[in-house]
Sequence to fold (487 residues):
Amino acid sequence: MPRTPPSSSLASPQRNRPKAAGLMRLEAQVRRDLDSIEASPRAWVPERRDPCGSVIADVVIVGAGLSGLSLAFGLKRQGIERIHLIDVAPAGFEGPWLTTARMRTLRSPKTLSGPDLGIPSLTYGAWHEAVEGQESWERLDKIERAAWMAYLAWFRSIIGLSVCNDTRLLSISQEENHLRLHVEKDGQGSSVSCRKVVLATGLEGAGGLRVPSGVATLPRQRWTHSGELIDPGILSGKRVGVIGAAASSFDWAVTALEAGASSVTLLARSPTLPRTEILDWSNFPGFLNHFADLDDQTRYRFTRRMFAFKTPPTKEMYERAMAFSACRLVTGANIRSIGMATDDVAISTAAGDFVFDHLLLGTGYSVDLSRRPELADHVDQIATWADRFVPAAGEEDRDLLAYPYLGPAFELMEKAPGSLPMLANIHIFNSAAVPSLGPICNGITGLKSGIPKLVSGICRGLFMPEAEHFYRSLDSYDKAHFQPERM
Fold:
């Protein structure tokens, strides 16, 4: 698949001039706005060095997509300067927007606040008007994926955030009073010392791809999960089966149909399609800001109910798929068996039997911290919901109980107190945090609540251990700044 970084520029230099002028005016406004609200307070975290003499980073953020960029901006606004962002993706491909996200537009309303953190000149709307004009913004219904990625690239640039791309976190270890992150870039291993690390690793942050057991027995080249890259051209002329009928499944169906698949059959276990977008309900301050304040029983109950909702396809993607005569939706198709029949993928369901050339999976993600390389060495010491909470009879949910049980600053907690203190400095800002903190860490909707909460927790964790340092600074302050009166 070609990987060309997104661009908001048009091909004609003359047509580019109004856009360039609009962005210049907007960027000047951003600088004025930031200056007017003390957005860059003085750095205050004391510099510390590791035994090798290297400066210890205050925070390393793993993942430079929407969440990672937003967090970096939030930390900078609180005077935390030694921030390192790393991302496994090449520059311009952070997050899913140009890779595994296959819908034409975002599903969120265009007016949702994102990484701007309440600064109007940093919103997507301000950027879109500067690039495309006010009339274009007023006509816009939903934000196109490529435009959103171009906006994030601009945001990263105007805020002055640098990212170490093509860098994979391999493991985390404790060294005296700091963490050591072992990373790999271009096949070469190295390490980074830091006080705190935030895993802003998106949907896969709780484990990995969920693959039905029958599918896992098939030849690997015969199936693709929605979380994987694929060259759509390989689907041309193929009989394609799509397992699932939520949003990602219809995105898959459209991708295959537009690539020239001879037929696409969506197999939905449920007798009806999902219809309700739960984020529409949850987008209010009381829930987003105070979910984490609820007791365990109530949080578990809310999460279990939220997880029962499946993300429905957008009206646009549903209609695009069903407009193809080669597309078929089969409901009530609970799968009984999957295997190979000669050279066909054969699936038996409650709604009939089917054969395909290739399967596309819209089956979501699993919860299994042992599948996360950065956490695998410490899984036995990380507290999960199963370690801290016993649900009522009939309300057991093995998947939900496998989620990590996090503290108020999104930090991992020890299964046995005192067994691994470094866990308090590993913060989880991805889908694994939902049962503990709510839906404020896994999409645009909750960022306005999640980022301030996480930033506050990180600041507290950086300040408290340095209380004696700050007391000494205070105690000597009058001597250092005393100016004798002139006679």
Residues 4-13 have pLDDT under 50 and may be disordered. The longest strand covers residues 188-199. The chain has two domains: 13-206+367-468, 211-274+310-363. The chain is about 30% helix and 20% strand.
